[in-house]
Design brief:
- The complex is a heterodimer of chains A (388) and B (142).
- Chain A is α+β, with helices and mostly antiparallel strands and 388 residues long.
- Chain A has helices spanning 27-55, 72-98, 111-138, 148-176, 183-186, 192-214, 273-278, 305-311, 338-341, and strands at 260-264, 269-272, 282-289, 295-304, 320-324, 333-336, 347-352, 355-356, 366-368, 381-386.
- The chains are: A alpha+beta (388), B mainly alpha (142).
Chain lengths: 388, 142
């Protein structure tokens, strides 16, 4: 029974002011949903941390991020977005369960209590905004005035921290309701047990439904069921979705007429597209995986990057700077650690799925490397040089 | 327990401090007040719009037959709607042909239809089971 009738007891001895009559606004329900939500937050935090490190590695990690398995970022970022979506009903259900505590009376019972309530407010606010921002970012819909990357990153720490603090504060209550047969659980009204189980089934159905209609944007077995995802594996030129189009990057055909690739090292050189095509060509199958959660595997052909580096006598341990022709966007210039530069699968790709790379996919030449976020798979490559 | 709680609490405060530091020193100028406003706005929208609507729905369901099944159905349909809303409201895809390529209003309707179908199946199974249980009870008595 979840009748939201408010009844405020007048006695001073009872600190709980507002009773929402009927069950499931109880600590056992909060514990069960909270556990699931906690796992979701952990998965999102760890995968988000990994994505951040790949995109902006601190110096000591720049050459240590993994290039294997080739689908590592596809997996972690697919999980990040799918878990974030699954967290929507979990978060809302958790907050519904504890909603009556919002009207606690008296609102503050001392410094400790005030601090606890502030930390809960921070936790709730950070959780709601993180999930909302993350979801809208998968649509590239930026309705807020601040930078998504910076704020999503900062709030992730606030959310993780306030969650740990919350668990520390609530630890006795959580452990007293951890199991169905825990002593405090057994003190709850008996009829709440089947009611709770049906609520959890409903919640499971909501999480399952969201996953089924959206995870197909990165998880091939669900591709045919992709109904409510911002990307679909079957939509995109040459069999692959496009994030930044040539038009958006202000790349035009005329600009590419005299295109030459410039490789700068101890023995610098330039090559025309025809000359690049004369070099030994390799074929690899590698996924494009975007930070926004979609990913798809594709067949690429082109020149091995390490062959190009060797030709310029660039040492094997060197990190690279890859420059694009694009004028718009934060990723016109990217850096690449030696673990990717020397990888036999890393190509300067000229072809995609059996065709010449089209303009939106980075014609005349683009980088494709294993295990990296799509934004670092630089398109319309103009120049490759040794870093530092 | 005490040690675990202390470690969790101290780690939590440290992570919050990292986040606050990032928010204050690692963002564009003017970000902090904007973020505070958005945080407060999220909570206000949730606490004083979304939850009251959910509570009213719960109240309406209170005396419905097979209440728990319908509650699950509403949870599922509500979650699908929350996921579909931004996709439907976004409209344009800003010149990116492979972004938002689907007919989202139709897909949303389809997902709700599937939810209704699933709910009807669950209700049927429950009714059949109740029927069997009733017959078994009667047969046992005779």
């Amino acid at each position: 029974m979840r009748k939201p009738a408010l009844r405020a007891p007048r006695t001073r001895s009872s600190p709980r002011a507002v009773r929402f009559r009927g069950g499931l606004h109880d600590p056992r329900t909060a514990t069960v949903i909270g556990r699931l939500l906690g796992v979701a937050v952990l998965v999102c935090f760890v995968t988000g941390l990994f994505s951040h490190v790949l995109q902006e590695p601190p110096g000591w990690l720049a050459t240590r991020t993994p290039a294997r398995p080739v689908w590592v970022f596809r997996l972690t970022q697919g999980l990040h977005v799918a878990t974030g979506i699954a967290a929507i009903p979990l978060l809302l259900a958790k907050l519904w369960t504890v909603y009556p505590r919002l009207f606690e009376w008296p609102p503050v019972r001392g410094v400790r209590h005030a601090l606890e309530r502030i930390s809960v407010a921070v936790l709730v606010a950070a959780a709601l905004l993180e999930v909302f921002m993350g979801l809208l970012n998968t649509l590239q819909w930026y309705v807020w005035p601040f930078s998504f990357r910076q704020v999503h990153w900062a709030l992730a720490w606030v959310l993780a921290g306030s969650l740990l603090l919350h668990i520390a504060v609530k630890a006795p209550l959580i452990s007293a309701h951890w199991r169905r047969r825990s002593p405090q659980t057994l003190q709850l009204p008996q009829e709440s047990d089947p009611d709770r189980r049906s609520l959890l089934l409903g919640l499971g159905s909501a999480v399952g439904a969201l996953t089924v209609v959206s995870a197909g944007q990165s998880f091939p077995p669900l591709r045919q069921l992709t109904l409510l995802a911002p990307r679909h594996m079957d939509h995109g030129s040459q069999g692959l979705p496009v994030n930044r189009t040539a038009a958006a990057a202000r790349i035009s055909r005329s600009q590419l007429r005299d295109w030459r690739l410039s490789v700068r090292g101890p023995r610098p050189y330039t090559l025309s597209l025809a000359e690049l095509r004369e070099l030994p060509q390799h074929r690899v199958e590698l996924p494009i995986a975007c930070v926004e959660g979609w990913s798809k595997s594709a067949r690429w052909t082109g020149v091995r990057l390490r062959d190009l580096l060797e030709r310029a006598e660039i040492p094997q341990g060197a990190s690279l700077r890859v420059e694009s022709l694009q004028r718009e966007g934060a990723f016109a210039v990217t850096e690449m650690g030696a673990q990717y530069a020397q990888d036999p699968l890393t190509l300067l790709a000229l072809g995609l799925n059996g065709e010449v790379l089209n303009l939106d996919h980075g014609y005349p030449a683009r980088i494709i490397a294993p295990g990296r976020p799509g934004v670092l798979q630089t398109k319309w490559v103009r120049q490759i040089e040794v870093l530092g | 327990m005490r040690t675990v709680r202390a470690v969790l609490g101290v780690t939590g405060v440290a992570l919050i401090a990292v986040g606050a530091w990032l928010l204050v020193f690692d963002t564009r100028d003017g970000t902090v007040p904007q973020v505070v406003l958005w945080l407060a706005g999220s909570v206000a929208l949730h606490d004083f719009l979304l939850v009251p609507v959910v509570l009213l729905a719960g109240l309406a369901l209170l005396r419905a037959p097979a209440r728990t099944v319908w509650r699950g159905a509403l949870l599922t349909a509500g979650a699908l709607t929350l996921l579909a809303l931004p996709l439907m409201l976004r409209g344009s895809s800003a010149g990116k042909p492979s972004l938002l390529p689907l007919d989202y209003p139709s897909n949303w309707a389809l997902s709700l239809a599937a939810t209704v179908l699933g709910t009807v199946c669950v209700l049927l199974v429950r009714a059949l089971r109740a029927g069997w249980a009733g017959r078994r009870a009667r047969n046992g008595r005779s």
